[in-house]
Write a structure and sequence with these properties.
The complex is a heterodimer. Chain A is mainly α. Chain A has 13 helices and no strands. Chain A has two domains: about 70 residues, no CATH class; about 150 residues, no CATH class. Classes of the chains: A mainly alpha, B mainly alpha. At the A-B interface, α2, α3, α4, α5 and α6 of A face α1, α2, α3, α4 and α6 of B. Chain A: Its main location: membrane.
Chain lengths: ~240, ~120
């Protein structure tokens, strides 16, 4: 029989193991999510991240080695973003009738996201590098990383903050907007797309197709708007 | 499936090229989404090819964020250092942005009488 340590060091350095672990962890997360009647608090992304994070810490596996395997899943984010055109196309007539509400929701949501996170973080003692890393936190990761870099932030920290923001938005949006009595699926989806990018959009699709389509639009538009707004707003918090 | 994937990747590729060539603030896949939307609006054939694959991929959209999400463990140190302040800032800011965005959308929809029809 082979030395189990040698076997482990082989497996843990090959893409297969971590690709498989990613699928299993998500499968567990998704199963729990369904078991609790799709409660927003059992967000499948969050469950999978906690499981995998714990496994990496316990086995002493560096994130980079994990990512060598998981990158095959990560790669699909690009094509999946292109696929957002499918629900968008199905909802195009609704979008055309809601151009003004979209513009209002975009500006209000985007400005609120940037100003509030900088104001609170600064009040709690965050330095300039952390503020720059936080400013684009509501924007889809590839764009947020670019914005953070140009502002003097730490790009990989921004990626982590973006994911946390997405999970917070995905978990809070349904109970919060139910409580406040929002019934317009367009508004609900659009707002979570602006504030919590792709993870919020994935949540919106779990709830309602129209919400998902409007979330995709919110995510795309806020990526552009934040690229212009973040430097301006940040300069007031210098 | 293969024609659909070819078409989707072609849109992404065109998006990446345009984004880099013109140094646009939008990433390639977002531009690719716009290209696919245009192609679907122009051609019923494209709609037929792309729809089933697109719907399949989007059903599992959450899964695709897991690898990037695990990256949080690489930043546990920095996150813990600013723990409380960071948690408060992210939670309040995200919830506030959702409510303000949704409220502005609904208010303008009422003003312009572009109410939801479902």
């Amino acid at each position: 029989m082979t030395d189990p340590f040698k076997l482990w060091s082989y497996l843990s350095s090959e893409p297969l193991l971590w690709l498989w672990a990613t699928l299993i962890a998500y499968w567990i997360g998704d199963t729990i999510f369904r078991r609790v009647n799709r409660s927003p608090f059992a967000n499948p992304v969050m469950i999978a991240v906690v499981i995998l994070g714990a496994v990496l810490l316990m086995t002493g596996t560096p994130y980079q080695r994990y990512f060598d395997g998981a990158q095959f899943v990560h790669f699909m984010l690009g094509p999946a973003t292109v696929c957002l055109a499918v629900p968008l196309h199905a909802n195009l007539p609704k979008v055309k009738r809601a151009l003004l509400p979209i513009a209002a929701g975009l500006i209000a949501g985007s400005v609120t996201a940037i100003v509030s996170v900088l104001a609170i973080a600064k009040a709690m003692g965050a330095g300039p590098e952390l503020l720059a890393s936080l400013a684009p936190k509501s924007v889809t990761a590839p764009v947020a990383i670019g914005i953070s870099q140009s502002l003097g932030g730490e790009p990989s920290l921004t990626a982590a903050l973006v994911i946390l923001t997405g999970m917070i938005g995905a978990i809070t949006v349904t109970p919060m907007l139910n409580l406040l009595g929002f019934r317009d699926w367009r508004a609900r989806g659009f707002a979570v797309g602006v504030a919590a990018h792709g993870i919020g959009t994935a949540r919106a699709f779990q709830v309602h197709e129209t919400a998902g389509a409007f979330a995709s639009i919110g995510m795309g538009l806020n990526a552009v708007l934040t690229a212009f707004l973040a430097p301006v707003v940040l300069s007031y918090f210098g | 499936m293969i024609p659909a994937l070819s078409l989707i990747l072609a849109c992404q590729l065109a998006g990446e090229i345009l984004s880099r060539a013109l140094q646009l603030p939008l990433p390639g896949p977002v531009l690719g989404m716009i290209f696919l939307l245009i192609a679907m609006s122009v051609s019923g054939k494209v709609q037929q090819i792309v729809r089933p694959t697109g719907q399949f991929v989007l059903q599992h959209l959450s899964l695709l964020f897991v690898p990037a999400g695990v990256g949080i463990v690489a930043h546990l140190g920095a996150l813990r250092e600013h723990g409380m302040g960071l948690a408060v800032a992210l939670v309040i800011s995200t919830m506030l942005a959702i409510v303000v965005g949704a409220a502005a959308f609904v208010a303008v929809a009422k003003l312009t009488r572009s109410d939801a029809d479902d």
